[in-house]
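Give me the fold.
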Amino acid sequence: MSMQQILTELRTLDGVLELAPEPGSEHPEISWGDHFFYYAPDGQVPNNRQPYATIVTKDYPDDAASRLDAPDRWRVNIHVGSRAFTDLIGYAPGDIDEATVDYSTADVFNPHPLYGAYGWVCVVNPGESTLDRTLDALRGAHLDDRRRVEHRQR
């Protein structure tokens, strides 16, 4: 699946806000070309919470295990929580064994290299093996973020 196909799907979700920094914007240069997703029906980027999903297109200084600087590589990152993490990865977020995870393998679910212990999963270049579950996880993360926002508003 192409990144564009996933972006198209995400953009159909109600109340979604996509932050996509571009060259020359006020956002840090390292973020240019990446995508950050929030439930924000007011259209304002939240300043008090993290996105529920991101798509990154390059290595970051502290996050290079997925080898995204190689051509045509990108990664979907999704905050799914402990239960969905365990369903997708096969073990709980607290049980990550860094020595056994190859974060650079494409089209498989892995713990996020930095935030796996907090219920984040990732997929490098989602494809036939992970596409449906990736889209389901993204929809679920969107609904979870929506519930959190609506709960705070009450």
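The radius of gyration is 15 Å.
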